[in-house]
Amino acid sequence: MSIAKTYNPREAEKKWYSYWMEHGFFRSTPDEREPYTIVMPPPNVTGVLHMGHMLNNTIQDVLIRRARMQGKNACWVPGTDHASIATEAKVVAMLKEQGIDKKSLSRETFLEHAWEWKEKYGGIILKQLEKLGASCDWERTKFTMDPDLSEAVIDTFIKFYKEGYIYRGVRMVNWDPQGKTALSDEEVIRKEVNQKLYYVRYQIKDSEEYIIIATTRPETIMADTAICINPNDERFTHLKGQSVIVPLINREIPIIEDEYVDMDFGTGCLKVTPAHDLNDYELGQKHNLEVIDILNDDGSLNEKAQILIGEDRFIARKKVTNLLEEAGQIEKIEDYKSQVGFSERTDAVIEPKLSMQWFCKMDKLAKPALEYVENGTIKLIPEKFFASYKHWMLNVKDWCISRQLWWGQQIPAWYNENNEWVVAKTEQEAITEFNQQGKSSSNLLQEEDVLDTWFSSALWPMSVFDGVRNPDNTEFNYYYPTQDLVTAPEILFFWVARMIIMGHDYTQKPPFKNVYLTGIVRDKMGRKMSKSLGNSPDPIELMEQYGTDGVRVGMLLSSPAGNDLMFDISYCEQGRNFANKIWNAFRLVKGWETTEAPATESQKNAAIWFENRFNQAVSEIDEHFSHYRLSDALMAIYKLIWDDFCSWYLELIKPAYQAPIEKETHETVKVFFEKILTLAHPFMPFLTEELWHDELFKKREEKDCIIVAQYPVVKDFDIRLIKDFEIVQQIISEVRSIRNAKGISPKIELPLAINAAGIDFETHRETIIKLANISTLDLVNEKIQGAVSFLAGKSECFVALEENIDIDAERERITKEIEYLKGFLISVDKKLSNERFIQNAKPEVVQNEKNKKADADTKLKILEGSLLNLS
Hints:
alpha/beta, Isoleucyl-tRNA Synthetase, domain 2, seven-stranded mixed β-sheet, four-stranded antiparallel β-sheet, 27 helices, 31 strands, 44% helix
């Protein structure tokens, strides 16, 4: 059977993903094995695959594939989030294109349109994840508004309400005028914005005098209910107890005193607008001020503003400024930078707004969630995120959980004709509750608001296994708590903390053991990838161009946990080249004819070395995985395959041109090839499965696939043997370098002499002669006059060239090396003479510096002897 010159990823990807699906390799059901469970952070149902999803889900797939190969019962639960704000915005926009206004529809009709939209577009991202190779148990796919998951959300609301955690009240909230809904503090993104600071004149009542107020929001002047001065500010002592006239609308408001006012900011006077600023609201409460809300839900001015009614707030800002200037009430305008809140979902500027909302008390609920991370029950990877997690948990505020939307779980509260309310799961239960309280149960209406999407996704690790409604079920008890959560740091509080809170409240257990926090995918200029910047490649196009395995490798080679990935297309090229390297190595091995002759001693030694080097690599890779250093694990696999297997082992055993290879050696190399394929499979699933089934290897049964092959286990290895071979590799590389430097053809044999120190070169004689193309290899006890020398470990090596060497050039080369080593020794000696370094550094770090010094001293003596030899 002939094998193609280059790997065709498209064919392999389509073939093997279908094969895995058809044969149930992704399916998981409880059994006697150790479970390994991951729940996918559910992408928004509105979403399409972007680079962040790609990184996140590739990491999850690597972890789940490795666990499956280790014999664990691997269960990866996929799903999507209903994303109330984003989805409702999509549906409203769709209806608008059809000439339909949401306000003209009943709730039921609107939801029919929303469900139609979800069925048409909501599964796109999950299909794209199949292209990525995601080995999820697709039969378990969940949606946060599935009936069973929604019921769990409603049950949780009622439970928390009965336990006293949920309450209803008028509070100042973050209002999204575009989404027309309240947001929690965590859904507000603070950005530094270039603004204007307007200095406005407020006339003192019954006086020609005026007071100047600095504000960034002149459009809220009509909602002012007081001017506040600091009682300690002597500049305004004469104004105490007086009133001012609000510009443009001529309403009288009092001058009040409070030490809250910063005397050094602006003019030292503060306009108090209780309806449109949280701090002003608290000041208004303290001083019993009137609250005048001049903004509609969409951010336009209402009739209470008295002027510019119906104008958008930002247009009103410009028009108010013009009116003030025409009235001579603008003192000056300055450029000003300040932090402004934006909606995390719609990117609209947030308005502080007084509103009747539902809240969840968080202080008591947050304490166990902090303790789990503090005591190491849950590990954040990397640990650097613990400080911000702790700060948030210690300063947590009550969570506004109601949203003024229709798409989502409708809050189970019921109002009677007297606007009295009860919390109940159904209308009938609400009637019973009202009757028991002796209150009217006529004309009941359910609360219009829905719950914050994060309230439902906080139950995700439990609700996907029906653990909220049915906590004693077999699956929940088997799969929960889950093992690893892979997510982005920006939702550490949105989602991760809340899952821990919910999990503890229900089960007294954490929902997962480890939280792997990925970095942000940025372009090579350091900018976050986004559609708006146009700097984000389409992941599907990348996979089409470079192959899925190539893109997976390219991304993970450069994405350490918690650190941002500076993505460049060249990484995908590197990944594709790696896939082609493996493919070409396979073509080489498959193309060898065999002879019944036994393996040579050199081939046997090569096999012993590679077996030990492989076991060493497995140990390194296992250590990297245990610390979630996936990038390092992949790099270790990359070096093992590219360098040790392809560049060294295959060269060591390769027969002469058109000659057959010994069958014993051929069988050995096939075993090694299978082993390296199993190591690579979690990162490169398609290529490895394609090669695994080739006729070169043993005949495979239908389900004998690499996806369930045994992952290599850690075994002992001979470190001395590996170190000795490193010296042999160094000798071969140095001889090749000498050839390049001197322009000597690789076909010309060169004599080599070695003044051996601590290594048996007889074992490696054939290897050195073959790969360095050596005519004679002599072991000597003295220097060889007139030869080019170099150091390999502690052994000095001499290559006597057939023609006279350039003594001056060689002397210059050695002199430069001596100068470098002397400088290096000065830096090492300086470090070792530093008492602070000796006292504070780890013992192994200090010992490493001492070893460097000893090695450099040895090399320096040999080089100085070589220089003397050239004199």
